[in-house]
Each structure stands twice: as C-alpha cells, then as structure tokens.
Amino acid sequence: MEWSQEQKLAINNDEKNILVSAAAGSGKTAVLVERVVSHLLRDPEKDNNAWDVDRLLVVTFTRAAAEEMKQRIKKRLQGAIAQELEQKNADRNMVRRLERQLILLSGASISTIDSFCQTVVKNNFNAIDIDPKFRIANENELVILQQDVLEDMFEAKYAEGDEALQRFADKYGTVRGDSALYDIVLKLYEKSQNQPFPDLWLSGLELDYPSKDGDFVSLKDTKWWPVIEDEISCRMVPAREYLDELKSIVVNFQEPKVRGKFEEDVSFFDEVITSVDGALQQGWHELYTAFFRMNDVPRIPTISKGVEPEVKASFKNVRDALKDLLKEMHELVQDDEDVLLEELRAAGEDVSSIVKLVKNFSQAYGSAKKQKNIVDFSDVEHFALAILNSPEAAPGELKPSDIALELRQRYQEIMVDEYQDTNEVQEFIVRFISGDGNANTFTVGDVKQSIYGFRSSEPALFLKKYKEYEKADNENGELITLGRNFRSRREILSAINYVFAQVMTPNPTEIEYDERAMLNEGDPYGYDSPNIGDIVENNVELALIDMTANSDGDEANDIDTAQIASENQDDVEDLVGFELEAQYIANRIREIKASGRMVFDKDYKENNGYRPVTWRDMVILLRATKDKADVLQEILQQNDIPVYANTSEGFFQTMEIQIMHSLLSVIDNAQQDIHLAAVLFSPIVGLSASDLAKLKASAKDGDMYTAMLAANTPESRLDTDIKEKINDFLNKLSIWRQLARQVGVPELIWQIFRDTGYYDYVGSLRGGILRQANLRMLVTRAQEFQNTDYQGLFRFLRFIKRMTDMETDLSMARTLGEGEDVVRVMTIHKSKGLEFPVVFIADMCKGFNKMDLSDDVLVHKELGMGIKYVDLEYMAKYETFSRQAVKAKWKRELQAEELRVLYVAMTRAREKLIMVGRCRNLEKQAAKWCQHIDTTDKVLPVHTLLSVNSYADWVARAVAHHPDGKPLVEYSGITKNRAAIPDAMGRESRWTVSVIGAEGIAGVNQLNEVDNSLIQTVKVGKPIELETDIGELAHNLSLDYDYRGTREVPAKLTVSELKRRFSEISFDDMQPGDNQQLTAQHGEYIFNRPRFIQEAEGKAGLKGNEYGTLMHSVMQHLDLSGNLDAKDVKNQLADMVANEVMTEEQAGYVNVKGVVSFFKTDIGQRVKNASELWRELPFSRMLNAGDYYDDVEGEFIFSQGVIDVLFKEADGRYVLLDYKTDSDTNPEAVKKRYGLQLQLYTAAAESILGIKVAERYLYMLHDSSVIAM
Fold it and tell me: Where in the numbering of this chain does the UvrD-like helicase ATP-binding domain appear (predicted)?
C-alpha cells in the first residue's frame, strides 16, 4: 500500500507527542498498526526508537477493535518474517527479534481502557485495600442493587424524620412515590462518577449558589451569566437584520399616512432592540427593563388602502419573525435581578440537600458493592486513578505515585485510538503514565465522530489538544490531519462537504468544518468502469414526503417538526406516518435491486472489481430503532425484501418471552389472574377464550386458580376436555413449583421446555429460529442473573419487573450471520466503523429527543446544577437563572452531538446515499429551510443553527442553496432569488431532490386506495347512513366460517390425550381409578395435590395419578448399578427422600415388591445390561391430523410425550418399555388400552432418532407381569 505524505508522517514521527485528526474513511487503524509494526521492525542496536511490543500501551474503544489490532499486527509480523527469510542473506537476528515480538504479542497491553485499568488494580490491589477477587457486575445487577440501596436509604431517613429529605420530597417528588427522587439522585451520582474526583466536584455544586448571607451582588458574579448573555447576543444579530428589512419595506410606502403608521410600529421594535443593546453592556436590571416593553407589543397596522397585499404580507412575515425572536430572548429575562438572586439562594438550599443525599447514596452504594465484592467500570477507572495518584497528593491534586513512575519506565509509547470518545478520568490515567514533557503519546481520532456523549465522552478534550497542537510554535506536540477518504465515491464526499461546510461551525456546534476537516478523495475509488453493467447513478438523494395530503384536511395535524418534538407526539400517529416513509424506502430498494447496477467491491477480482448490487449492500439507518425498526421490517417483508433489524430492545415484548414470563410468575405465585390466564390461553395449556370464560364462570367468587382447583374435582361440570387440560397443567405446575425450590432458574426453564415442548413449538412458527434464539437468550439471562448474588425465581421475576417498570428492555437474540443476503436496519451508533454501498438515512424530519431538558434538575459538568425554584405555598415551579443557563448549554451540546451523529450516518455510504424524511405542511417547513437562499454567507446564521430540531433542518437548509435544490424552493413558494455561495466547499456536488405527496407512494394504506364511502364516513366521525338491506347485513354478520373439518382439531395434544381420544377401549370399560392413572404425566415431582393436603389426607392414601407418577419417578431415579434387591431399593428410596425427590410419607407408598420383581424378569435384566439407556425421554413431533380426524386435509397436530425407557442392546437392537400401575392387568385389555400410545412412542423414536425399534413391552407394576406389544 502506498502511504500518503500525511500518513507517512504519522507513522514515522518520533520527535513529539502526536494528535492525528483522522477523517472518516482515512485509514487511521491501518496507520496505527503500521506505526507499531514499523517500530518493531527497527534494530534496537541501531535505532533508539525501536520498540518491543510488550512495552507499548495501546488503548482501543472496544474489545473487538483491540483483538482486530492484535491480529493485524500478528499478520504483518508473520509477513515480515517470511519476507526476510526469502532474502538470500536473511538477517537471522531480525528474524529472532520478530519471532520474539510474536510471542510477546499475546500478552501485550493492547486493550480497552477498562481492561487496562483492571490489570492495574489487580496488580496493585494492596495500594487501595481492595479484594483482588472482585468481579465486574453486569448492568442489570447494578440497577437492582442501586434500587435496593436507594429504597433502604430513603426508608431509614424517613424513619429518622429527616427534614431535608422531606422538603426535597415535597418539592420534587410525585404522588406516585419516590421514583422521581431516585432519578435525580442517580443522575447526579452518575454525572459525578464521570469526574476524576467525584466528592470534590459534588461539593463544588453547592458553592455555585449564593448563600443566605448574599455572596453574590449581581448575576454577573455567577458562572451562568456568560451563557445567558451569549444566548441573547447571538439572537440580536438576526434581530437587527429583521429590523433593517422592516425599515427597507416601509421606506418604499408611497402614502405618507400609511408609511407613518408602519414607521411607528417599526420604531417600537427599534427602541426595544436599541435598549437591549445598551443593557447588555450595563446589567441585568437594565436588560429586564428593556424587555419589559415586550409585554405590550402593539398590533400590526390594519391599514390596507395604499398597501399592496404582497408587500403587507412580506412586512407581516418579517415582523412575526422579529417578534418571535424577541420573545425567545424575553423568556430568558422573566424577572428582575433581586428576584432571581433570591430564588438562587432558596434553590441553593435544595442543591445542598440533593448533594448530601447523593454523597450518602454513594457511600452506601459503595459499601453494598464492597460487601458483594463487585465493581462497575467507573469504579475500576477511579481505583486505577487512585493507585496512580500519590497518597500524599492534596484533594484534587495530580501527583504521580511510585506505581505511576514504574509504569512510565515500562511503556515506551502510549497510543490511544478513538481519542474523541475518552473522558477526563481516562485522560488523567493516560497522563499519569505518559508523564509531562515526554514525546511518547500518539492519539488518533475524529472529533466530528464523537457521538457517545451518553457514555460521558468529552470531545472538548480532543478540541483542546487540537487547538494546542495546531500552533506553529508549539514544542510539545504536533497535529497531523488525515483528510483523504478511501471509502466513498467523490460524489458522496462532495455532498457531505457541501452540507457540513454550511452547518458545522464553532458557534454553536463547537467544530469548524474547514479545509483541514473536509473530506478529500483518496486513491481512486473504483473509477475504472466495469466491463459489464452500469455503475450506480444519482449518488445522493434527498426525498421529502408531505404528510399534509394524508391528514384528511385536519388542521390539528398541521404542525411542523419542532412542534411535534416539543409536544412529544412520537406515538401511534407518528408510526402510521412512518409506514409511508417505510414504503417509499421499500420501493427504492426494489428499484435499486432490480436495476442490476454495479457496485465496487475491493475483494471482487473480476469485472474491474464490480459486481451487481445485492440486498446486503443496503442498510437503513435510524437515530433510534424503537418501534420504527419493527415497522420497517414489516413493510419490507410485505414487499418481499429480506430484512434484518438489529435492535437493542423488544426482548420482553416478544410473544414467546411474555408467555414464559407469565408461566414463571404463575410457578412463583399461582394466584395472579392475568399471568395465569395468559398461560392457560397459550399453547402450553391450549384453552380457548370460550374455555377460559367457562372456567372463570364455574367459580365466580374465587380467582382463576381457585377455579382451576375446583375444576379438578368430581363435582365440576366443565367439559371433559377442559378438565383434562387443567388436570394436566396442575400436575406439571406442582412439579415445577417443587423444582423451583431445588434448582436454579436456567434449569427450571429447560425442564419446562422439555415437559411442554414449547421450545419446539415456537420453532415451528413463522420466525421460529429467532423465537427459539430468544428462549435460549432467556436461559442465558437467567444464568447471568444466577451468577450474581441475586438468585432464585422470585428475585429473577423481580428483576424483570424492575426492567419493565423502568422502561428498560433487552435486545432480542441475534440469528444473522455477516454473510446473510438481507437488508439491514440498525441505529446510526451501531453503524459506526461500518460501511455499505447503499445507505438510507430514514426519519430525517424526526425531532431531536429533548425529554431530559424537561427535568426539574439539570446537571452540567462545568455549569453545575440547574434546578427549578419550587414555591410550596402555591405549589408552583419556576425557572431559575441557573437552570436556564444549564438548559441552554445542554441544548447546544445536544445539537452539536446530533450533528456529529448525522456526519457519521452520511459517511457510511460508499456508492449511494438516500436521505428520507416526512413532515406535515411541507410547504411551510420548506419556506423555513429556504429562508436564507438569497445570502452569500458560507455558513448559516448562528440563530438559524440554534433553531435546528432535526437532521432535515440541516440538510434541507444547505441543499436549498444548491442549484439542485430547485424543487424544494419551488415547493416552498419563496420568491427570493437563490444566490450562489462563492467558492462553496462541495459546490461540485450533485443532488436529486424529490418532494412527494403521501398519496403518490404506491403500496401503502390500502384503505386510502379504496373508494369506500362507509370507511371514509367512519374516519371523519359522521353518522352512518345504511344503504344495505338489514337482512343482507344480518346475513353477513352471522356468516358461519367454513372450518373445513378443523373446528374440533386441536393445535396440540399430548400422547396421553391422543390415547384417550382414539384408543380402541372406551372409558366406560375402564375400572374405577384407571382414568386418574392415565392422566398422570411422566416427570419429576408431579403430585396433584399440595403436600400439606397429602399429609392431612395421608390415611386415605395417594390418588391414582399421584401413585402412578410416584412409581415412574422411582423407576427413573434408581441407580441400576446396585443389587436392586429389597434392601437396596429401600436404601435408594431413603436417598431419594434425603434429596427431596419425594417425601418420607410418599416413600411409604412405593411398591417395592413390584420394583424388585421387575429386575428379576428377563426384560429387567436386559435394561440393566443395556449398552445405551434413556429414561424419561421427552419428544415432540407434528402428526397428520387426517390420520385421526375425518375430512381434514393439510392440517397437523403438535404432539408431545415422554418415553419411559428406551435402550440399546449389545447387538444393536432397540427396545421400548413403558411402566403401568393399572389394577386391570388382563393382557388383551391392556393391549387395547395402550396399543396406540406405544405405536406413537415407536413412531417418534424411529422418526426422530433414525432407529428401528425391534421390541416393545409393558411392565405392569401391580402384579409384576410383562406384556409384549
């Protein structure tokens, strides 16, 4: 590979600390690997900058990245060794050196910062008094522990009568409990943990507020003044421009009286703006006085005579814009200075109370984690920082410890990848190891791709070093810019440059998109045309869907994206609109696939590297996949497009997990009607809605469980089929409840799968592979939970409830390989580091998520805590000066990060980029986007950028200035002439801009495509006028569906049920007790009645089904290596009692004679001597319903059962055996009764195991007889 000059400089420079600002697709990872390998290839005897791999510290953002880097280095070293050995005079010393590096590579410090910190802590645990056997707790375990600690802490403080907590609860709590208070404490705690010295930072929050004695004389003395001042100042610039525009309109009025009226109106705004200008130089009181006039804005002159309607409309539009702007500023200046200072003093007391609570929680939480010997990642980083900082350092002081000095001597170079995503704690750790004045750090990143603010990453660290290193006279470090992109076509790069040059500015988005930041094409990306086929055209598209046409003229829907976001209307209505967008995307995907266009693939050797586009070449990116991914997946599947949605939620909402959750809840506590009804209605039991109603009606005064117990009595009048299903379920429930007390939740779940066949059942449904993967993941989650200190079914269910109550979900199982030919749907965050030939960015008009900005308490690292003032007397909350400042800062940082997220999304595309959005009243929205097309400024105004609320707000505003943005300008109705931006970056870009009416998207909302007056009448809420004959209507409503013979065919039947329904012998021929015996289900711990009832009724003996199950359990658990005489069997029964397989009372009912006699028979001896033996073997299979029901074709019954014994003899013959406890042992009657059952068992064993059953037997425990079948 030929390296560019900038890349060579990054690889070879050893004179200074280096910051590499690497643009998207610039090959930064390859450069980092080459820098490592090139220094390993140096001869240490000739070059002081030769490195050993075990003396490098390489920090990556993910474990996968660390492993990839190790593999790349390994591959390069192996290649270098092979190349050297091919030389005629190979340097054996160099070969040995490189072979040594390969050996050292496995233990090299190439890892994430968390892994490195764990190593530091475990190697120096004695320095901070921590148990070295600590483990990293999983996130879910920590969530539960946090809740437990908070509940205990609050309860204790309430019991103590803590007045501060009571006041805090009165002001910021809700009638629903303390959850809102918990959130405040947790958010502030988590924010503090992102600081190097949490307690010191928390204490500083209190000092920001004036005390009762009045520390601050003026608001200018606070840290929040510069923020509010800047918010007002940046809006003053466009305010003056609007004022000048109003003056220019008025001066052209010919009629003096008309002009005078409008000039009077303009002078009002002129006076306000002039007053505000002067007040900004004076103080808050003057500012408040200046804005006070906005409480009495005069009406716009109503004169129409002598004024052209178009001119007056233009005047009104500009005036409204100016008035709105002044109102925005006025909202920041609601009260006079004395009032605001007094509110700050009052709020300061609340801040002190909250800080105290957080410190108490931090201490209690730390103690709880220490008691369990667990830590989180933040703990590990702080422990490492404490180890590296000297014990003699003052609070907040950084002074290297002896351990830090030792590590400085060990590491020759410290390399940090993805530097833009580090935080201050991690920065201090690296600084401790690198030392001051040493040229030994190499940091790589791209601040434009810093998108992990929610993980506390701080792009400001990158920007600070960037500004320091870019100075020509800086001697400590050097800035190297990698601006050449080797990923995307020049058409994609030009479009990205065109947008971001206009919208990414230092104010307000923190970054300047200049020549060093722009993307330049690297080596030609597939510019050799393919020999066969055509390349992708129209590389960049912007498609905007106008939803107005789909709103049926409802003016209530006529709102823009900003209003949608501010009112938090991301609801069902929004999802319905998204279906339109999803359909448009589906149409475009099908068109692209059908076009047969060629895409470049560097791994493809034929056709100059070009191959036809495939499904997996396309990806749909969303800011958040919640709900939207499901819509996309459904719409694409309806359009026969294979699709896979990689989501981070939805696990608890899947049908199979909800049913298992309900079943586990019933096992824990059966008296939960909702969960129990869900299980009964599920395929596990198989009751219909009608059956449930009959069951509940049979015990009106009791709950559902009471009704089930009543159904299991002779007095019950329920249908036999319902009673059999309930009896079967009660038997299983009894065993599961006992099992839950003896084994872990994972084992319990697997046993449920075996007993019910539910795992196999969901596998037969649509999407069965994913459903089964979800069930396996449930077991994995249970296993992870069991590995914590929280164990048992009750606590596992409590954990699930906590997750759902907190609206926290888990991701569904992944069932897709990387090579699968499907369209992928994923979040923009998950796409980082990936690339795709065709990229769709969906939901472009979706408003940013600003929910956190509505919290009563906002926290910022630098500005501290912004808190609402609460007046308990009037139960009212007011904005404080501090909260306004923190909110304004938060909003800017939110917009800055969202802009970086958009940059990441657009730079994923290699060949084609399609951006799609929708909004109501697109014409009105387009007018806003085209507001500045007549200016020649290279960047959009600051105030305009501050008003951005969606990705479309950035992209559409930029594209409106481009000649290809003409469709958008025309749609907006704006009459301004577009002015070209001189020397605009990316001006050579080409765009395909489409404005689409909702009705123009084919294939969606079939109701709208049908001219059905009845449906339209219902939609608008009007009374229905019946035109249909009543008789015809009644006939339609009473239509009897033709079930084609399947009405009585169940979806699922056990083998026992099949036997009962279709065996040759009728139930009338059975002896008393046999029916109960037949209902016994094979398996452990299935005893129909609760143990306390059995003990109370012990004298009456076991019921038939209980006795049958008991004997099967004994035969299953016997150790066949024993003598199996009467003494041995009794000893084994005692062991079973000790192991809680059965109770002592139940052991007394075991037919010991029948058991001993069995092993004296020929078949018993053959079982003992079998080469392979299966006992209680469960199975599930699909049976042809036509074999059992007349007039049924193409339908199947899901069947399951348990084979008592299947064994293989030395000669390879398979024998099937079943135990029976019937009192009627007449061979002919038994054969009729159980013939079908053994046929089903035989067919299942042969079909599933692929064997041939040679012999079948029944052993009658009642009289020890053996019956060959």
Answer: 1-489
